[in-house]
Design goal:
352 residues, alpha/beta, Isopropylmalate Dehydrogenase, 2 domains, 10-stranded mixed beta sheet, 11 helices, 12 strands, globular, binds nicotinamide-adenine-dinucleotide
Length: 352
């Protein structure tokens, strides 16, 4: 039996993760899965009550006893500094060495695309965001805080090992999926040390993958191209900060945060899956959040663990929901979170 930790977190995280779990269990009824879903209550509520974010021994437990983690989202207005969210999310990414942030950008229906004259064939690429280094490592400090002479330093860390492994992962993904183009975005014209490392590494690794075109972009030019000619891209690899930003742009190309799924992968260990969106306090508790991103995240988790038929069932059911407009309001439907999840589960249950 494979154990999957389920950590819904805060706000709409709890609402959409519930629907993701229902979808996994619906596929189980058609094709039994040898998995056990284990609910965990880490999040703002637990932090406010106990001061615990995620204890060190929990990471050991994940490493030893779990095959994957399904997360919702973290962030609660009652914790204005977001300490628990940083600890749980960044802690999991760093401590489990989830160095691959895998974010597909795939338009499922033309009606969702904010760009003119773009079809589902034009928006279909994958972003690999480096997930354990960059400016997110929290190295730096503030000097003379609160005075007119205040100085704030925030370091960006790029290691040879860290840069090389994410770039190699992106090329290997392209090779495995018969894709022909890998783009890398940095800002090496202005950031002449760290991003020079990215640049050299990229072209060195590219030499191992003949037949795949390696193209370098400065991040500003890539952002422009993502809007003007998204069809140019098959695989994009970039650093932690740039990847964070361009995948929110990517989510909009697909139709919004309610549709974007992601994986945080350690190819040699336990991996974590979460929707791209946050806890959306503005709509939390109202049964209006779109559960599709979380449901597609569950699909990604099942695919990662090799349950391809169960994953395919979820994908087909989401496509039916889109085609029949059985969606939440922000995508033009009239269903609530739970009702949209129920519809997707009913399609899974009638899947042949
Ligand atoms: N991975 C994470 O846990 C994660 C990621 C991003 C933000 N956050 C946290 O979430 C909180 C809110 O952040 P934010 O507002 O910048 O980002 P957000 O993604 O929560 O919301 C951005 C906008 O998108 C909408 N939205 C998001 N998900 C949606 C869904 N499933 N269905 C319909 N609409 C949806 C929200 O209503 C909001 O208007 C903050 O505390 C932030 O730190 C957490």
């Amino acid at each position: 039996m494979k154990k999957i930790a389920v950590i819904p977190g805060d706000g709409i995280g709890t609402e959409v993760t519930n629907e993701a779990k229902k979808a996994i269990l619906a596929t189980n009824a058609k094709k039994p899965l040898d998995i056990e879903l284990v609910d965990m209550e880490y999040g703002a509520e637990k932090f406010l009550k106990t001061g615990v974010t995620m204890p060190e021994e929990q990471y050991d437990d994940f490493r030893k006893n779990y095959s994957a983690i399904l997360m919702g989202a973290f962030g609660d207005p009652r914790v204005p500094g977001n300490e628990h969210a940083k600890d749980i999310l960044l802690g999991t990414r760093f401590k489990l060495d989830l160095y691959v942030n895998f974010r597909p950008v795939k338009l499922l229906d033309e009606k969702f695309c904010p760009l003119k004259n773009k079809t589902v064939n034009d928006i279909d690429f994958t972003v690999f965001r480096e997930n354990t280094e960059g400016v997110y490592v929290g190295i730096g400090g503030i000097f003379k805080k609160g005075t007119p002479d205040e100085v704030a330093v925030q370091e960006e860390i790029n290691t040879r090992k860290g840069v090389e492994r994410i770039i190699r992962y992106a090329f290997e993904f392209a090779k495995k999926n018969n894709l022909k183009k890998v783009a890398m975005a940095d800002k090496s014209n202005a950031m002449q040390f760290g991003h020079n490392l990215w640049n050299r590494c990229f072209f060195e690794v590219a030499k191992e993958f003949s037949g795949i075109q390696a193209k370098h972009f400065y991040i500003d030019a890539l952002a422009m191209m993502m809007i003007r000619n998204p069809e140019e891209f098959e695989v994009i690899v970039t650093n932690n900060l740039f990847g964070d930003i361009i995948t929110d742009m990517g989510a909009q190309l697909q139709g919004g945060m309610g549709l974007a799924a992601s994986g945080n992968i350690n190819p040699a260990g336990v991996s974590m899956f979460e929707p791209v969106h946050g806890s959306a306090p503005d709509i939390a508790g109202r049964n209006i959040a779109n559960p599709v991103a979380a449901i597609l995240t569950a699909e990604m988790l099942l695919r990662h663990l090799g349950y391809l038929q169960n994953a395919d069932m979820i994908e087909r059911a989401v496509r039916v929901a889109i085609q029949k407009n059985k969606l939440t309001r922000e995508l033009g439907g009239d269903l609530g979170t739970k009702e949209c999840g129920d519809f997707i589960c009913s399609v899974i249950k009638s899947d042949n």
